[in-house]
Here is the input.
Amino acid sequence: MLQSPARQAALQPRISKMDRPAAKAIFGRRLGIISQQIAIALGQDVVPLLHELRQPLEVAELERLTAAAARGDGEALASAIRLKQVDGQTSEQLCLTFLTLVARRLGEWWEEDRCTFVEVTLGMIVLHQQLRELAPGLVTSGAVGGGRSALMMTAIGSQHSMGIAMVAEFFRAAGWAISDETIPSEAALIRRVSEQWFGLVAISVGSSSNIPGLAGHISAIRAHSRNREVAVMLGGPALLSHPELALAAGADATAPDAAEALRRAESLVALMQGAE
Here is the structure.
């Protein structure tokens, strides 16, 4: 449902972003994961290759591609890599190191307060997807499968369950282990995520009245989850016109439909492997 500017402004002060120390710690682990995966794919440390790459990759291009990654625009990064391959300027190693530069630039943007936690996470998803394209054997099906379990729920207090039920079936068809439940309170949510390991918690937000409580619920999930690297996704009718509300609440990602939710969830869970 489209919210008026006045309603939007009224909601914003009631949504707190994830506190910076916690977000910084999570981001640091994720940056370490993607760097480690690139190093594994290369079969060597990527740091000695960075100097080789800094010449052909201009600062303006690095800024443009980092911005694209933060928007979740994987095609921009893929196109740049293809152009360098066609031009003969790079090898597979150079392309993989190219991803490292974008990842490092994302980290610099984070330190400079030029991007949000969720923009960083979107960037990491894009980088991981491109890494899998360049080194498809890097993430084995067994490793990804280990994290492909999800708790799917409507926002606490919401009665709109049809949407999340459809998403749950979409994920099941893709091989995920799904628990789709009605969680009546934050205390019940804490009990649920503390008693069972989930790679993902997905929350469908059916009404704008559910939005103010999201930040607190997400903080509780992260604080009490058996999986300290649990990914949190938000979706639903209340966020379709204002996906930025998911970012403000501290979620890792949002998606407009089940197919995109599955794509992003697969990359998020794969990115988390090895973080523990």
Remarks:
- Residues 1-18, 137-145 have pLDDT under 50 and may be disordered.
- The CA atoms of residues 148 and 175 lie 8 Å apart.
